[in-house]
């Protein structure tokens, strides 16, 4: 048997192992390899039929790569590359445009978002358990925590999501990188990208692992990412407490949002909110908020818009009161609900601190039409108390 025939036989064996495993049918790695091999006549003239059989097994992709200890399709592709070296850099998944959505992050993935305007992102590589452990720390400057399994699509997605948020200035790369027989090394590739960039073929310089090519993003994105973000190499670190300390010390060095961010991909611009103008009455009535110092509790009186007291509620805290009132559907306008929540919080704070409390009027000018049509007089809080008194 010739060397080529031997390589093809070994390639076939690996493909058959993948075809026998259902987990591969829905894995981007398997589908990418099969589609890639289909492009090379040196392979299809012998394995064409087998590759068509493999394509018939494809299911909707659920993951780019599972990071299995031995990835048969990756082994198959490496074996096939010895028949035609161009196969080593081929790949269908690396030419597919990712589907972005409005908002941030624009691309879906295995991550948890904490805050847009925060400077530190954490990539836990293949240690998925670290995502929750770090997220639950609730560190103020922490923006997003997520995993990373591949050194091509995964890194491309990460770059796009980071570039869409100029507040992110640090990326801590931690957790277990995959160290498989033949596999992926996304962490090593990400650090190499930060240190060396890409060559003229968009291959990450000095990256190891399966096909570290960034074909769906322009060079401009790669360079902007390298300028915006400082990658902190903690590959292998899985101690959540140590990582939390590192995040806190990193946050303290925040230089502020990246001034040269690529404007066209910033997904969430900051909008200036308008001052409230018109105040519309809530047909469900109005509330009077009272801190009851004798009983150390809050009290709310609910009136109809004709000034008739309907109900009285008491509770030890603001949340219990607004939750109860909303459940009873005694509020029919969102601005009224927001107003009541704010007043209850102020009254609760006054009760705790023993400070004086005066109920604020609702913001905005009372709607004249509504007011005249009901022939009612507004009070200082903007409600329809007929006596024209402040509701404090
Ligand atoms: S990583 Fe490789 S072996 Fe694992 S499911 Fe995906 S294609 Fe199959």
Produce the secondary structure layout.
Blueprint: H1 3-19, H2 22-25, H3 28-37, H4 41-56, H5 72-81, E1 111-113, E2 120-123, H6 129-135, E3 142-146, H7 153-163, E4 170-175, H8 186-196, H9 219-228, E5 230-235, H10 240-251, E6 278-279, E7 286-292, E8 297-303, E9 309-315, H11 318-327, H12 334-353, E10 365-366, H13 368-373
Parallel strand pairs: 2-3, 2-4, 4-5, 6-10
Antiparallel strand pairs: 1-3, 7-8, 8-9
Helix pairs in contact: 1-4, 1-5, 3-4, 3-5, 7-9, 11-12
The structure holds iron/sulfur cluster.
Keywords:
five-stranded mixed beta sheet, binds iron/sulfur cluster, elongated, alpha/beta, 392 residues, 37% helix, Rossmann fold, 10 strands
General description of the model:
There is one protein chain. By secondary structure, this protein is an alpha/beta fold. The protein has 3 domains: 3-92, no CATH class; 111-265, Response regulator (Rossmann fold, 3-Layer(aba) Sandwich), CATH 3.40.50.2300; 278-373, no CATH class. The chain has 13 helices and 10 strands. A hairpin with a 5-residue loop joins strand 8 (297-303) and strand 9 (309-315). Helix 1 runs parallel beside helix 4 (41-56), helix 3 (28-37) packs parallel to helix 5 and helix 7 packs across helix 9. Residues 369-392 have low confidence and may be disordered.
């Amino acid at each position: 048997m010739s060397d080529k025939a031997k390589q093809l036989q070994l390639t076939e064996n690996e493909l058959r192992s993948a075809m026998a495993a259902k987990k591969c049918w829905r894995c981007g790695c398997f589908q990418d390899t099969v589609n890639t091999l289909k492009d090379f006549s040196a392979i299809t003239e012998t394995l064409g039929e087998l590759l068509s059989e493999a394509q018939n097994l494809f299911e909707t992709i659920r993951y780019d790569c599972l990071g299995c200890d031995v990835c048969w399709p990756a082994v198959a592709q490496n074996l096939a590359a010895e028949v035609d070296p161009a196969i080593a850099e081929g790949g269908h998944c690396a030419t597919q445009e990712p589907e972005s959505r409005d908002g941030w992050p624009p691309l879906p993935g295995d991550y948890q978002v904490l805050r847009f305007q925060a400077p530190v992102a954490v990539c836990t590589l293949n240690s998925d358990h670290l995502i929750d452990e770090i997220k639950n720390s609730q560190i103020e400057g922490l923006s997003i925590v997520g995993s990373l399994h591949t050194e091509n699509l995964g890194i491309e997605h990460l770059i796009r999501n980071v570039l869409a948020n100029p507040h992110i200035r640090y990326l801590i790369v931690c957790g277990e990188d995959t160290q498989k027989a033949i596999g992926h090394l996304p962490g090593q590739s990400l650090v190499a990208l930060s240190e060396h960039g890409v060559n003229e073929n968009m291959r990450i310089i000095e990256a190891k692992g399966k096909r570290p090519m960034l074909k769906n993003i322009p060079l401009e994105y790669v360079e902007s990412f390298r300028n915006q973000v400082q990658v902190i190499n903690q590959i292998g670190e899985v101690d959540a407490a140590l990582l939390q300390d590192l995040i806190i010390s990193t946050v303290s060095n925040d230089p502020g949002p990246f001034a040269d961010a690529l404007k066209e991909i910033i997904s969430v611009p900051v909008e200036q909110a308008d001052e409230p103008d018109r105040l519309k009455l809530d047909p469900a009535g109005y509330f009077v908020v009272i801190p009851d110092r004798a009983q150390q509790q809050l009290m709310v009186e609910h009136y109809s818009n004709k000034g008739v007291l309907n109900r009285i509620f008491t509770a030890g805290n603001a949340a219990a009161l607004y939750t109860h009132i909303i459940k009873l559907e005694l509020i029919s306008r969102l601005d009224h609900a927001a107003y009541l929540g704010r007043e209850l919080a102020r009254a609760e704070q006054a009760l705790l601190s023993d400070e004086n409390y005066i109920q604020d009027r609702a913001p905005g000018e009372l709607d004249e039409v509504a007011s005249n049509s009901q022939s009612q007089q507004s009070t200082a809080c903007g409600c329809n108390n007929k006596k024209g008194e402040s509701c404090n």
